[in-house]
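mind reviewing both lines:
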Amino acid sequence: MQKKSLITTRYDHLNLYFQTQQDFRRKRLIGSRRLSPAIGGVLAAFAIMAMLASGARAASTTNVIYSFAGGADGEYTDTDLVIDSAGNLYGTSVLGGDFGGGTVFQLTPSGDSWIHTVLYSFSGGADGGEPYKGVTLDTEGNLYGTAVTGGAGSCEGGCGVAYKLTNSAGTWTQTVIHAFTGGDDGSGPGAGLTIDKRGNLYGMAPTGGANGLGVVYQLHPDQSGNWTLKVIHTFTGGTDGATGSAGRMLLRGGHLYGAATAGGANGKGTAFELTPTPSGEWATRRAISMAPPTTTGHTTLAPFTRWLPGPRANGKKESFTASKAEQTEPIPSATWFLTRRAISMERRVKAAWGVARSSS
């Protein structure tokens, strides 16, 4: 005999509530002024507790699609993932690979499993090393990324590179499109690249530049396949910020949006907007400074807490996995999320209770 679940979805809570309302009405209890408030409170509390329980069960199911061994397949996957039209996933590992300098990898769905393939292993030499934050995919299937070491320049171990990976009949070829020098062009480019409709790439370097505090740059391709780097903003450490973050910048309506980890009016970093001018230059239209949290008279909740699955979240390396998370709805923060659902459910139950009472 199949066992039925009492509550399976959030809509079942309201169904249960209204069914109980009907039972009470038939027994002539719903019209009692003495019992009505008590019944309403009990039903609301029951609905909220049931919602919390079912929400905790159904919130997220994580299936590990690949576990990295830390050898030739890669290690320390501090990466974003991108997906192509065929459902293939692409990312990077900072370490591992054939030479220990990191990898670009592909995860291909095959039935109920996934196949991991190393597309490129970095040597840590002229081709770069330690690629962070994944790759960017263009409309032709080419991949673009950055590596914080290797290449050339005056930096110890190299100042890093921006690179392109091209697929030709299943064979991937890596090309360095810019080797950073550690001078005005910046150094250590760990941020992901943003691509526009013309094929221009945008990124940030956290160090180097005219002030030594990092730059925002553009890489422009010509018809011959050569790339030219142009610095479109040099951080000053003032109100514009300093040390561009490792996050990928956003491009919307021709405007670039990004974040700097330091500087600003409060010295705690900035979120900034860069706008192109008619002359072809870029101007900082606005920079919002991060303020330190205050604790006077209220509690600050962080409604969007980023999940950081990287191996150094606790200060040391751990095992690394690529995962597919199947969520019924977004979960910014578990506690905040469940509290929000409970409050929402309470309001809905109270509203339904008011409708039921007015019709009785």
